[in-house]
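[Backbone geometry]
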Amino acid sequence: MIENLKWDDFKVILAIAEEKVLKKSALKLSFSYPTIYRRLAEIEKKCGVKLFHRENNSYVPTLAGLELVRSAKEIEKQVLYAQRKLYSANESFSGSLTVTTTDTLLYGLLGNIIHDFNCKYKELNISIIVSNELMSLEARDADIAFRPVVSPNETLIGKKIFSINQAVYVSQESKHTDWLEKDIPWIAPNAEMQYPLLSEWFDKNNLLNNRLLKSNSILMDFFMVSNYDYAAVLPTYLEKKGAGIKRISPIIPELSTYMWGLMHTDLRTSQAVTELLNYVRTNCQDGTE
C-alpha cells in the first residue's frame, strides 16, 4: 500500500519517470542497475500495482505511476523548501556551500576571489561546479550562481556585480591591428554555444564568410587567440598583464552585459551565501574599461 512508501521510494519513482531509462535513473541516484531494478520491483510489490510499462525501451508511468509521480514532485518540493530554509537559518560560517559559474568567469575573474574567501572562512566547505549551463538553484544543485545574465529567473534574487564588456582580440604577436582588416582568421560561435547575440554580430558585420574556426567555449577561444593567429570576441576582463592578447577594436556595446550573483529567494537570509555575494562584489574590479 502507498502508506508503506518512504521518501526514498518516491525518489526512485521520480527518477525513473524523469530519466525514462533505468541505467540513467540509477546513475542519477548513485545506484547500480541491479539495485534500481530491484527497488522498482519492491515498490510495485508494496503498492500492489504496476507503476511503469516498457515502451520503445523507455519506462513510461501507468495511471497509478502518474499519481505517484505527482505525489513525489509535491514531496520533493516540500523537502527542498525545508532544506533551503534550514540552510538559510544557519547563522555560522560552517557546513557546505556550493557555487556554480562558467569556466571563463572562474579563470578570468572569480578563481582568486573564491580562493581568498575559502582561506578566510576555513570551516566552510566550498564546492565549485564549473558549468556553462545554469544549475538548478531551486533543487539546490548549487547555492549561489555567478552568471552573465540579462534578466534573472523570477524565482531567483541577486545582485549585478560586474559589468562585462567585450571586444575583438588577437595575440600580442599578431600583425593585425584593426578588426576590420579583411584577411583576419576568426573564431566564431557554433550552434552549441547558444549565443545568438554574438552570432548576429558576426552576421551583421559580414564576418561569417571569412576563414573561420568555430567553438562553443569562450575559454577555448581565449586559448586559441593567445597562442595562434586568430581573432575572437572576448570579455575585457581577460585582458590582463601576461595574458598574451591585445585588443584591436572598441568595446562592442550590443554585447555588453552583467555578471549576476544569483540565489534562490529562500536563501536570502543565509549568512554564508550573502557574505560570499558581498565578498565577490567588493573584490571584483570594474568591468567598464
In short: The longest strand covers residues 156-164. The first helix runs from residue 7 to 19. Helices lie at 7-19, 22-28, 33-47, 63-89, 103-120, 196-204, 218-227, 271-283.
